[in-house]
């Protein structure tokens, strides 16, 4: 299909507000994400047929993070199909291209992003995450004057944009930084106690981390604020990965049992082994793990030992009307075992960008900084209710606010979700925060009253 570098222009019949709303992509978030099948059936004539707008994604579709990378690709693919069926951006369809970042070092990430620009002329890069510094692809976006949305979940992004907002105006982190996992977890424990759902047996907390910025930043955030929530860090230990043998760490935990075990290492296979080895001789401790239990492989390994484990995410599909509708059509397209929580990230990011571009009068090709600055300005001013909750960007940092730790209004921040595996043969239950919770906290079987 022919590509054009021309600025998108409205394809609207004069005086037809309905046509503008459909062609401009300005339907409500609930319409776009909650009832697309009905909308497509009613408005099939809205399907975009203009000159395609190239968009891109660079993600790990091979190597160790491929399970997530494939879902990121699926999420953007689904979003583009839906947006095109709704009229595209002012009548022009989105045409996605993909580049593999494999092991995701900064050099590889930059090369993949630059190929999207050079080979495909993308107007925006709409990613999931890439492990690295979290401050590399932003350079490609800045040099080429295009929009970049990612879910790297790193405070490095906030600090980079804040250091030079005039250069990094086009880079946005669609979720809150990993830093918020720390105070958010401490606040979650406080809420459990205040609600009378759990009572600590002592003030000790063990924090287990792996080397790397992500796990370290979360662990340090817990450590720095623990005192203010009445906790003493009784163990702060870095493990080497892959960590299939947890005996030495568990020996320390069993020698001085804490009320809480907080593990910020995130690989699901390693965490599955911890659950198995902990279950053979558990301490009366709440067990919190980072990210890994959200992957089916964790439950496959841990099996019954997974029951009672708590984990969290600052970005994931909610278990509400919008989130469950998304899950159904995602799995209908990509299979019953498809990871919709990973796919939800670039899916929401694509809708945020496309809606802002329609409001701004169209997208801009590489080098068209003037038009893409207008798109960025609309993104900065938006409040978007999507599959993952509310996306609202922090001024001068271009990263999503988190709820309830950073803002106390659920309509103004993305929910920091806490989930618990209560039956490993089924999906986890969302236990916090209100008003999104669908399941009550269950006291783990290994903690006796």
TrEMBL record:
Q: Which InterPro entries match?
A: BCAA_transport, Leu-bd, Peripla_BP_I, TAT_signal
Domain of life the protein comes from: Bacteria
Provide the alphabetized UniProt keywords.
Answer: Amino-acid transport, Membrane, Signal, Transmembrane, Transmembrane helix, Transport
Chain segments annotated as transmembrane: 20-42
Pfam family membership, one: Peripla_BP_6
Keyword match Plastid: no
Q: Does the keyword Transferase apply?
A: no
**Coiled coil region boundaries:** none
Family that this chain belongs to = Belongs to the leucine-binding protein family.
Protein's name in the database: ABC transporter substrate-binding protein
Q: Which residues form the Leucine-binding protein domain?
A: 52-393
What SUPFAM superfamilies is this protein classified in?
Answer: Periplasmic binding protein-like I
